[in-house]
Design goal:
globular; 13 helices; 444 residues; four-stranded antiparallel β-sheet; alpha+beta; 2 domains; 10 strands
């Protein structure tokens, strides 16, 4: 499937946000704009082409700092992209995330009618994302981005979400975050799993051969090539409920941590059960060269060490025997924490909004993000486990339990409540820098 020759990526035309893992620690901001005047929208694109950071060479004078510029389908329409060109984009992108909510498991409390305004509406046109190693560099990046929309009265800022790494370098449930990143051929960026062959560039960047040898790109080529699709989701985390579930079903503090590891597939330090099955290993969890280098099929095919239904094995089954070809469903995933941490040992919700801004990058919305979300996270058929769901991110309604394979008798936990609630999201297109200029030069 991956036998075709490697191609050279045009890194100077690809936005850095398509290929690069975020820095650790980090600070980030998402800014959303509505285009009220087409001419000003096109001027925004022209300016954005000078603000967006390319994937070539050093990201910026500020170090591991960059600005990404994304456009929704409604944004492309507001810019006046011709109808015949709009029709060449992925149909999921054209529908938008809100319309795809049921298929994604955004039901009940997570349904789009409950989303935070204006997410999921036709008002969301352009998304700027700024990422930096610290708050000072982030503000410098935002100041630079401000030059793109400053004094354009036809551009209205309608939403902003600020994110900051917690002092613990974990997400709100207490797990080390930002552990996994696939290698992409031609990117020059090493993957976090040294046992995984680099994926074809066309899995993430439009206009290049993918794992099947096909080339996907919207038309005209100047618009589609070197772009990618980005999925942004605001996910509220119910930290107190998660803590109570662990405590209520554990026999001791040590057992509580083991349950947390079995649910995630990693100890909270980031050490994987696959490499440290009996106890946590913080040194392993802190080592980016070792903590993600493992497979499943040889040493743990039945999931006695890393349960088949745990979060990391569902999100990326690696070499495990499952229905489908795993490499066709790989994505670049990034999470950024928002909101203050819930104080240690607090078991009741304090009413504060906290969670993750999650982003997924790929060239195939349907067989990457949507497939993983619907078939791997919200179903268990692919590994022979019926209608079970991801214990962390699944769309639970208190009906499905969690099974931990164990000899001689498996361990069955009570039905899981919903720990993560979708507060909104968007399907976006990350144009190449040439495409941003092309959008800026559109004429009616």
């Amino acid at each position: 499937m991956s036998g075709h020759a490697q191609v050279a990526l045009e890194l100077d035309d690809i936005q850095r946000g398509v290929l690069s893992p975020r820095p650790t620690p980090y600070a980030a901001s998402y800014l959303v704009f509505r285009i009220d005047d087409r001419a000003h929208g096109r001027e925004l694109m022209r300016r954005a082409s000078a603000v967006a950071t390319s994937a070539a060479g050093s990201p910026s004078p500020l170090g591991e700092t960059w600005v990404s510029v994304a456009v929704t389908y409604h944004g492309l329409k507001a810019l006046g992209v011709p109808h015949e060109s709009l029709g060449t984009f992925a149909w999921e992108f054209r529908q938008g995330m809100a319309a795809r909510a049921k298929a994604l498991g955004d039901v009940g409390e997570s349904r789009s009618e409950n989303w935070e305004a204006p997410l999921g509406t036709a008002d969301v046109h352009v998304v700027f994302a700024a990422v930096a190693p610290d708050a000072e560099k982030l503000e410098a990046a935002i100041d630079r981005a401000r030059t793109a929309y400053h004094r354009l009265p036809g551009i209205t800022a309608i939403w902003r979400q600020d994110c900051r790494a917690l002092p613990t370098e974990t997400e709100h449930f207490g797990y080390r975050d930002g552990v996994s990143h696939p290698a992409v051929e031609g990117s020059g960026i090493a993957g976090s799993n040294q046992l995984e062959k680099p994926l074809k560039a066309g899995e993430f960047v439009l206009g290049y051969p993918d794992e099947l040898g096909g080339v996907q790109t919207p038309r005209p080529e100047v618009l589609g090539r070197n772009g990618g699709y980005a999925v942004f989701r605001k996910l509220h985390q119910r930290v107190a409920a998660f803590r109570r579930y662990l405590k209520d079903n554990a026999t001791s503090r040590e057992d509580e941590e083991l349950l947390a590891a079995k649910i995630m597939g990693r100890w909270r330090s980031g050490a994987p059960l696959a490499l440290s099955p009996q106890h946590d290993d913080p040194a392993l969890g802190a080592d980016p060269h070792r903590r993600n280098t493992f497979l499943y099929s040889r040493d743990d095919p039945a999931g006695f060490t890393t349960p088949g239904g745990c979060h990391i094995r569902r999100a990326n089954p690696r070499d495990a025997v499952v229905a489908g070809e795993v490499r066709l469903h790989r994505m670049i995933r990034r999470g950024a924490v928002y909101g203050p941490p819930l104080a240690d040992s607090v078991m009741e919700d304090d009413g504060v909004d906290r969670g993750l801004m999650f982003s997924f990058i790929g060239a195939h919305l349907g067989r990457q993000f949507e497939f993983v979300q619907s078939e791997w996270l919200n179903d268990g058929v692919f590994f022979g486990s019926g209608n079970t769901k991801d214990p962390i991110a699944g769309a639970h309604e208190g009906h499905t339990d969690f099974i931990i394979p164990r000899r001689p008798v498996r361990r069955r936990l009570p039905p899981l409540p919903r720990f993560v609630v979708t507060r909104g999201g968007e399907y976006c297109f990350l144009p190449g820098l040439s495409a941003l200029r092309w959008l800026g030069d559109l004429q009616d």
